[in-house]
């Protein structure tokens, strides 16, 4: 059956290109949720479809936008979201992160409660695809996967692998045991969620270089390569972490990941704030994507990510919230923060006369990072409205007969959705403007 949606669609098919497609008709083919038709409503093909099917009409003052992608979120840390951000990274991990993760692994009922609420909060914030760090215990990560699947979210779930430099009570006993645990988790995930329409997948997840021996990283790299699995970790995140790796291993962590075959087109590395130009080029050459987390970078890194440079080098980049290193689950907040940080970098650039090239990004580029850029980084066929892509979308309501919705105010009667109006929503909008969501063509809220 073909389901039709008629109305205004907004997307960013390229980094600095915004398209507002008024009175378009989109057709979704069930049960696979792929876009089979997308054209103006008055086109001959659309007219023929409208003669056979009744569309769902998106009312005036509303538009359809691709869902957001969150490339980096620590699911168990949702338990203490908004706490402990006064500490440096390594101390914060010991005092908050490891304890919360261990608590979740020891309490299945708590894990179910936390992860169910996390999934609901993600939908409220328009996040349709999320890459998740879990815990070290297999059963707890299977709970996480089930909660995401039950909510209908597109989720990439990582069982943590770490065999050193963690809490004595929260560590895997050896590299061999850790590798076998990662294999067991991935196998069970693939058996339970084998293919579309299921949208939940396992991710090989070495926490970061300090907590993983070379033997563990090498084994995970070989396994991920052999099975074509996704990979996620942290790279060049903070000054103390970078220094610790250099002291312990004698090389930077990008070299450690590279020699273990963990930089691949299926890899997402979070932060990357201390990478220079040649290292960014290395990510581009290997197809490795970056999860840019501007809020948590402000708390835990002495450097901002070189976003403009990475984009100019065609590195794949999307946005991450990094809860709980970042306190907000909202990718809308991450978009705004990404622009603000880039403008501060450009201000320093101007004052220091460092470069004639602007380091700033604008709101359209940030919207791209949150949607198509994130989807490309994750390797999923969504993020833009094109025939053959998955219909992952959200309905945004700006106004109705009584005026602007939520935080939005409009004073021009008869206004049409324009770039200025979309920008106003981008700056001021919140969850009150989100009326619906579809993942893989299925309505979720």
Automatic annotation (TrEMBL):
GO CC terms of this entry: cytosol
Keywords in alphabetical order: Hydrolase, Metal-binding, Zinc
A molecular-function term among this protein's GO annotations: guanine deaminase activity
Domain Amidohydrolase-related stretches: 63-400
Pfam families hit by this protein: Amidohydro_1 (PF01979)
Annotated InterPro entries: Amidohydro-rel, Metal-dep_hydrolase_composite, Metal_Hydrolase, Metallo-dep_hydrolases
Name the record gives this protein: Metallo-dependent hydrolase
PANTHER family found in the cross-reference section: GUANINE DEAMINASE
Superkingdom assignment: Eukaryota
Residue stretches in coiled coil: none
Cofactor(s) required for function per UniProt: Zn(2+)
Gene Ontology BP annotations: guanine metabolic process
SUPFAM superfamilies linked to this entry: Metallo-dependent hydrolases
First and last residue of the signal peptide: none
